[in-house]
TrEMBL record:
The keyword Translocase applies. Gene3D superfamilies: P-loop containing nucleotide triphosphate hydrolases. GO terms for cellular component: plasma membrane. Keywords: ATP-binding, Cell membrane, Membrane, Nucleotide-binding, Translocase, Transport. SMART domains: AAA (SM00382). It is found in: Cell membrane. This is Abc transporteratp-binding protein. It comes from Lacticaseibacillus thailandensis DSM 22698 = JCM 13996. The lineage of its organism: Bacteria, Bacillati, Bacillota, Bacilli, Lactobacillales.
Length: 313
């Protein structure tokens, strides 16, 4: 059976004064997936997230979260999710346990249930040893993990992570990724915004690419990569004199442009893919063109990002 979408955003628009910062954006987030909102600075990611989480009202279009409308049922919508990126709401002078207990009590848990939930979350975020440490003594990575723990107190089915690993070192970032993957394994739906393409590539099942308030593309990381031309073929010949015959063979098989730089011939494979590579290799052999190196490279999300977005004016 087809699962209901966790979030539906339909033709949403947002203006600040006369300036339209989100134009007719539509997408759906499926239950249990990690959905990445990606785009350059000022693209409208945070504004979109704020509308979904009822912190801002859209000027046009509809948004539902687990079937509840953000404009007419905002309280029901708020019960569906946890939100991180709100470290400001955490008290620096209190310990990790005290902070978690306060949030758990605010979520309606009894004193003993709140303490139990705090201990459970500290354990799952590897913070048990820091349970009685004040947050002012926490490192950036520990704080980020506690922030995520706080957002999970109410066991939400949807989690919004606004740039969850900005400013973290590579090891701590990898730990956060593992934590997020665990949450998804347990059935959570995650929407994350990120500036890190690698993060989107690592975590997101699907990505919406936003630029200047418009949706530029939506799809799995590999669909987005294919949209900008599929894999790239790169052939290196042992001497510069071989580049012309090698280029001629590649040009005969592929329709797009073939580039030559020193002893290397490169071209986008386009939709022809592997069969074209086979033909090229056979024809090179038949023409007696030797190769010193051969590579096929998938475009990176960086390539997608750079080709599909313009960024700030
Ligand atoms: N309250 C506001 N009033 C006026 N303009 C705003 C307001 N909030 C955001 N904007 C503008 O809307 C545009 C989109 O901002 P938004 O914060 O959604 O972008 P973003 O994609 O999250 O960018 P970043 O990656 O830099 O966080 C920006 O040009 C921003 O200056």
């Amino acid at each position: 059976m087809e699962k209901e979408n966790a979030i539906e955003v339909a033709h949403v628009q947002k203006r600040f004064g006369d300036r339209v910062v989100v134009h007719d954006v539509s997408f759906a987030v499926r239950q249990g997936e990690v959905f990445g909102l990606l785009g350059p600075n000022g693209a409208g990611k945070t504004t979109t997230l704020k509308m979904i989480t009822t912190l801002l009202r859209q000027d046009g279009g509809h948004i539902t979260v687990n079937g509840f409308d953000t404009l007419t049922q905002p309280q029901m919508v708020r019960r569906q999710f946890g939100l991180t990126g709100q470290t400001a709401t955490i008290d620096q002078d209190l310990t990790a346990t005290e902070n978690l207990v306060i949030f758990a009590r605010l979520n309606g848990l009894s004193r003993s249930a709140a303490r139990a939930r705090a201990a459970e979350l500290l354990a799952s975020f590897d913070l048990t040893n820091a349970a009685n440490q004040r947050l002012s003594e926490f490192s950036g990575g520990m704080r980020r993990r506690l922030d995520l723990a706080v957002s999970l107190i109410g066991a939400p089915s949807i989690l919004f992570l606004d740039e969850p690993t900005t400013g973290l070192d590579p090891r701590t970032r990898a730990q956060m990724w593992a934590t997020i993957r665990d949450l998804v394994q347990q059935g959570s739906t995650v929407v994350l915004t990120t500036q890190y393409l690698e993060e989107a590539d690592q975590l997101a099942d699907r990505i919406a690419l936003i630029d200047h308030g418009r949706m530029v593309a939506v799809g799995t990381p590999s669909q987005l990569k294919q949209q900008i031309g599929g894999s790239r073929l790169s052939l290196e010949v042992p001497a510069a004199s071989w580049t012309t015959p090698a280029q001629a063979v590649v040009q005969k098989v592929l329709s797009g442009p073939v580039m030559v730089e020193k002893r290397t011939v490169t071209a986008d494979l386009g939709p022809d893919g592997l069969p074209a590579v086979n033909t090229i290799l056979q024809q090179l052999q038949a023409a007696g063109v030797p190769l010193s190196n051969f590579a096929m490279q998938e475009p990176s999300l960086d390539d997608v990002f750079l080709r599909m977005t313009v960024g700030k004016n």
